């Protein structure tokens, strides 16, 4: 398709509607001919952009000589589009790390995946959870009905495809982004990508003929999203508290705490939660903790706007500037004991956390700042939407939001 007509021989109408994909390919081949290799860094990509820009100027000059009636406002916007696409389009074709992990997963080698008699029921050796996928599919057309054992069979077929026909690469998606182009060439390009994608679908489907519960539509959906495959594995709170060798070196840096601020707050919050479970109140607070707010119609329990104030909120609002130093000093040793228990559960020596963090937690007293609560409410709402719509990847690790320095970190144990 690229060789049908050189850019230099095109009319102004055809040249200005040439898809940027073709333009980038033409100048990429010129770069490879000149240097003998694919662009490897930002500097070399900038050189391709420069080649495209200069090429546009040269082609425009040639058009002016060939077409006397060429409008003075004529602009090759598709060449500008090509320059913008270089950074994202001119990349080595690789398999994403999240997909590599799936291809290397032990479940790909499970003999259950090749056993025709095994279905997605709870009797499988893989012990996958069962769900009413048809009901979920009716509620949300985006959600796929592929069960866990189907998924791993598809992953295995994908791995076999990559190792053989795919020549080490994932299947082509079969779609194109919007771009400046005439309909004929855009559809021609799209058909090339779709044909290549359908070929991959056929090759994968041929490996799954013995499983009638896996339809061609399942395979097609799988191929289309092969670059975005991911398995979310969550941990229970008990598992979360166990020491992970991958995190041991990081935890040993606790005395410096410069690179581990989020981890420190996580540990301190765990210690404070343990304190709360034992005493029924937050460290530094003299009031028992409750998750329910009781309102009063008494005028003295209203704020300046006349709105009733919850009891806990009244307490913090009237005493925020009068911290009880005695309570804080008496709670610090107890909080330290609870924190040391948490540290020991991680396999860390006790008394490794600076007292400043404990004092800050006692002064905090379980308060909930409106700005922080609103932000975290938004985070939780976003995660709920992910689970309801089955789109995007939900958070599966402890998330710490530090409003002091406006930082969010996912802790990987």
Describe the structure.
This protein has 16 helices and 2 strands. It has 413 residues and is mainly α. It folds into 3 domains: 2-89, no CATH class; 97-228, no CATH class; 237-286 and 324-410, Rossmann fold, CATH 3.40.50. Helix 3 (42-66) packs antiparallel against helix 4 (77-89) and helix 7 (148-163) packs across helix 8.
Q: Counting H and I runs of at least 4 residues, what is the number of helices?
A: 16
- Structural class, by secondary structure, is mainly alpha
Order of helices and strands: HHHHHHHHHHHHHHHHEE
How many distinct domains? Answer: 3
CATH superfamily of the largest domain: NAD(P)-binding Rossmann-like Domain
What's the CATH class of the largest domain, please?
Answer: Alpha Beta
Strand content range:
under 5%
Largest beta-sheet details: 2 strands, antiparallel
Shape: elongated
Residue-averaged pLDDT, rounded?
81
Notable characteristics:
51% helix; Ubiquitin-activating_enz; 3 domains; NEDD8-activating enzyme E1 regulatory subunit, variant 2; mainly alpha; ubiquitin-like modifier activating enzyme activity; 2% strand; two-stranded antiparallel ribbon
């Amino acid at each position: 398709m690229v060789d049908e007509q050189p850019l230099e021989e095109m009319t102004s109408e055809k040249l200005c509607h040439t898809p940027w994909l073709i333009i980038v390919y033409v100048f990429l081949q010129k770069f490879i001919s000149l240097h003998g290799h694919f662009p490897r860094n930002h500097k070399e990509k900038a050189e391709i952009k420069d080649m495209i820009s200069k090429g546009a100027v040269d082609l425009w000059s040639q058009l002016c000589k060939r077409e006397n009636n060429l409008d003075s406002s004529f602009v090759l916007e598709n060449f500008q589009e090509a320059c913008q696409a270089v950074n994202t389009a001119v990349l080595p074709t690789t398999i994403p790390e999240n997909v590599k992990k799936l291809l290397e997963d032990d479940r790909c080698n499970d003999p259950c995946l090749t056993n025709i008699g095994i279905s997605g029921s709870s009797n499988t050796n893989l012990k996958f959870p069962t769900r009413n996928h048809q009901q979920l599919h009716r509620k949300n057309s985006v959600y796929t009905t592929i069960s866990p054992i189907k998924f791993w069979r598809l992953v295995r077929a994908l791995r076999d495809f990559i190792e053989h026909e795919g020549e080490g690469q994932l299947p082509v998606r079969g779609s194109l982004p919007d771009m400046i182009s005439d309909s004929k060439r855009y559809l021609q390009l799209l058909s090339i990508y779709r044909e290549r994608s359908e070929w991959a679908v056929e090759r994968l489907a041929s490996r799954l003929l013995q499983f009638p519960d896996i339809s061609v539509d399942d395979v097609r959906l799988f191929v289309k999203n092969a670059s975005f495959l991911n398995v979310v594995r969550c941990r229970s709170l008990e598992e979360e508290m166990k020491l992970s060798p991958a995190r041991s070196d990081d935890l040993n840096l606790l005395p410096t705490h410069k690179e581990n601020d989020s981890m420190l707050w996580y540990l301190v919050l765990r210690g404070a939660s343990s304190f709360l479970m034992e005493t029924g109140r937050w460290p530094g607070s003299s009031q028992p903790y409750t998750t329910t707010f009781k309102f009063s119609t008494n005028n003295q329990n209203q704020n300046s706007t006349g709105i009733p104030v919850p009891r806990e909120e009244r307490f913090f609002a009237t005493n925020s500037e009068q911290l009880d130093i005695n309570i804080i000093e008496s709670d610090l040793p107890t909080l330290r004991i609870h924190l040391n228990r948490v540290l020991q559960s991680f396999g860390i020596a006790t008394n490794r956390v600076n007292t400043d963090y404990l004092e800050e937690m006692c002064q905090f007293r379980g308060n909930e700042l409106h700005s922080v609560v609103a932000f975290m409410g938004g985070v939780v709402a976003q995660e709920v939407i992910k689970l309801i719509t089955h789109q995007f990847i939900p958070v599966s690790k402890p998330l710490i939001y530090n409003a002091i320095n406006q930082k969010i970190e996912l802790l990987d144990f």
